[in-house]
Amino acid sequence: MKNIAKTVTNLSLLALLALVTAPVLAGEKIDQIVKTNSDGRVSIDVMSGEVEIKSWDKNEVKVTGELDDDAEGYQFEESNGRVVFKVYMPQQRWGSWKSDAGSNLTFWLPKQNDVRFEGVNTNVKVNDVHGGSRINTVNGDIEASSLTKRVSLETVNGKIFSTKLEGKIKLMTVNGEIEDRDSQGELEIEAVNGDINTATDAAELSVNNVNGDMDLNLRNIKELEINTVNGDLDVELRTQRNAKIYISTVGGDANLTFDKSFAGTINVEAHSGGDITNKINGQRPKKERYGPGESLRLNIGSEPIEVEIDTVSGDIKLMKK
Q1: What's the DSSP call for residue 25?
Q2: Which of 18, 25, 96, 309 has the most CB atoms around its CB within 10 Å?
Q3: How far apart are CA 199 and CA 215, in angstroms?
């Protein structure tokens, strides 16, 4: 009888020890809520998987979904309006992540909160956050819509799709394309080894691209700077009064179409064999006296709009519509 009791006691202790030290169950479901402030901040760290971030009219942050099979646990807590959520993963080299591994999580947070997201092999969707958004991932795509204030979306080896962003906006990718629609405010776009497409109402725009084509529909420009290397450029422009525009291309052609009401000064310099085609008023460019190149200066109307275009080894075409 004593042996039986001793055996039962030992088994109970082992079961208790297993309960205390057990890791998160594989693919554990999660459904948690914490209270926060209406103007707080939410920091989310999910190494891999699919994440969706939404807003609602509650002073709470909610997370639902399923954790990565390899997750060792998670942190979800609030302090003075600052909410932190983090999935803890085993120490591994980045290259050892399984392609099918990952958490699948959805977050709701107060609309005026500021959200910060960090991921590695993570695709992210974020919608309707008005307190600011900073989204960083590696090896993942970003989809964003209806974000306001300071917005930063950055990825490596991924695409960015954005609609109706407003405020001070930065979009950046390496080895991926960027597609932006109906943004407003101040916009900065950078891409390496990827195309850029935007139809924007931003008044201030800076675009830098290497090894990619660009298709830009700019509907409300006051300040514009474009730099591109090894890529073609198509731009439709509608400018504000007193607009300042600078465009530089190396190793790529550029087609610029101005609104029919455009009036201002256009100065074009083409070097190292670049040609200039003027479809606005037929004025011919001047050939350089020494070396292959052309230049053109157009004075159209009396508006104080200034356009400077410089190209190396690329053709420039000017048009109106």
Answers
A1: P
A2: 309
A3: 9
Give the pLDDT confidence score for residue 285 in this predicted structure: 95
Q: What is the pLDDT of residues 116-131, one digit of tens each?
A: 999 999 999 999 999 9
**Burial bucket for residue 126 (CB in 10 Å: 0-12, 13-18, 19+):** buried
Does the pLDDT of residue 71 top 60, yes or no?
A: yes
Structural tokens at position 130: 């008005």
DSSP state of 282: -
Among residues 154, 137, 225, the alpha carbon closest in space to that of 191 is found at 154
Render pLDDT for 151-198 as a digit per residue (tens, 0 to 9). Answer: 999 999 999 999 999 999 999 999 999 999 999 999 999 999 999 999
Per cent of the chain over pLDDT 90 is 83
Token reading at 61: 């942050």
What gap in Å lies between CA 220 and CA 200, rounded to an integer?
8
Q: Give the separation between CA 11 and CA 64, rounded to whole angstroms.
A: 35
Whether 16 has a pLDDT exceeding 50, the answer reads: no
Rounded to whole angstroms, the Cα distance separating 299 from 264 reads 6
**Whether residue 10 has pLDDT greater than 50:** no
What is the distance between the alpha carbons of residues 123 and 159, in angstroms, rounded to a whole number?
Answer: 10
Tokens of 105: 């999580």
Q: Measure CA of the first residue to CA of the last residue in the chain; give whole Å.
A: 99
pTM of the model: 0.89
Cβ atoms 192, 175 nearer than 8 A: yes
Q: pLDDT tens digit string along 273-296? A: 889 999 999 899 998 777 778 999
**Closest to 188 (Cα-Cα) out of 180, 108, 117:** 180
